[in-house]
Amino acid sequence: VHGGDMEDHKNSQRHWIKDIGPSVETNIGFIESYLDPSKTRAEWEGFVACVDKVQSKKLNDLVSNAEILISKLPWDKAFEKDKFHRPDFTSLEIITFACSGTPVGINIPNYDEIRQNEGYKNVNLGNVYPVPTINTMLFLSQQDKELMFKHYKTSLFLIVALHELLGHGTGKLFQKLESGKFNFDSNTVKNPFTNEEIKTFYDVNQTWHSKFGEISDGYEECRADCVALYLGCFDESMDVLFPELSKEEREEVLYAAWVECCWAGIKALMFYSPDAKSWQQAHMNANYCILKVCLEAGDDFVRVEKTTGSDGKPDILLTLDRTKIHSHGKKAIGDFLHRIHVYKSISDVEEGGKFWNRYSEVDEFMTSLRQIVVDRRLPRRLELQHDLEIVGDREDVNYVTFSEDYEGIIQSHIYHYRSCLLYTSDAADDLLCVDLGGR
């Protein structure tokens, strides 16, 4: 697509979603609108990846069982798509991803009319998962740190798989069509919270983002994460994704996933502006709302306390009672998920916005926690992308790696863009100390 015509890009995405099960996956274009306050201008990105066939089999099995899991979600079938378009769902090993920040999972295209009526693709980016260290896990007990370190990859896989396929991939938008008819039965479908007829909907040419505006991204990411936490509580999800794990190991993975989402809500406070009283990042807003929901679950299911660290400075301790995930956590998240899902489906901006803003609000106690989070912030994680090198007479490919430090990052960029260097001098060659055979 060279002309910049949106219809051309839409058609390219229609072709892309029909390319099922490739060994090499790629996409390019203006995709995500997270960085635009109006949620209309998207950021340019492109990636090339190879498929992890072992993990992809699990994800394809999840797709095969999708209708069973969808039936367990907390809303009536009238608020679900008339037909679930089974997408291609693969786990990828990224070779290169050009954007401002590489995600761990993708569900695209973002065009509502294509997603609703034609389908979409899900991808899990396995080698993008951040590798934690116990020393960088703040605000958790030592026991939780060790468990999170043990299960960080499996718990994140659980969240990403369910988030992308059954979070972003579910839900019907109640629309008025160009013919003047509706895509729902206005005579029989009722608002489950008022028991009244549906009075709001998406008019012709209206989209989810255009109606819900600046809250739409955080709202949708939260909805998808809630779907992941909720469905993670069912054996059917675990049977598909972790058939090799024992019941005890599965419970540990589930516990790690819930801790991960609540813990992210604490760290998210870094991205809240007390002066503007607004959230600066959609995913962080989503994480915080999940934390608030879990805190409201009661019976000390989740607790957040101010403590004093070993350095004598103010600290925070987050605890989650694993024995109450199924009794308290699942119900709290399910009730919250039901509301935000229905408000999105019926385009109830007024009630949905009020409900969302209540959970997004940062009160005095949370503002005091934010200062501790800011004071204890760690350096931002940096990304390092390795490379491939064709050697010989195009008969072999070597994997070129770089050291995971600042020098490695600099060398990687010189290597990636070596054909673009204005000066191919000996000095540049000296900077690029790379063993082309891989290391």
Explain the overall architecture.
- There is one protein chain.
- The chain is of the alpha+beta class and 439 residues long.
- Helices cover 42% and strands 15% of the residues.
- It has 15 helices and 11 strands.
- The strands form 4 sheets. Strands 1-2-3-5-4 form a 5-stranded mixed β-sheet. A two-stranded antiparallel sheet has the order 6-7.
- A hairpin with a 4-residue loop joins strand 10 and strand 11 (396-400).
- Helix 7 (216-231) packs antiparallel against helix 11 (325-345).
- Residues 433-439 have low confidence and may be disordered.
- Give the SSE string: HEEHHEEHEHHHHHEEHEEHHHEEHH
| Average of the residue pLDDT scores | 90
Can you count the beta strands?
11
Strand order of the largest sheet: 1-2-3-5-4
- Helix fraction? 40-55%
Overall 3D shape: globular
What is the radius of gyration?
Answer: 23 Å
Beta-strand portion reads 15-25%
Given the helix and strand composition, which structural class is it? Answer: alpha+beta
Main sheet record: 5 strands, mixed
Count of helices? Answer: 15
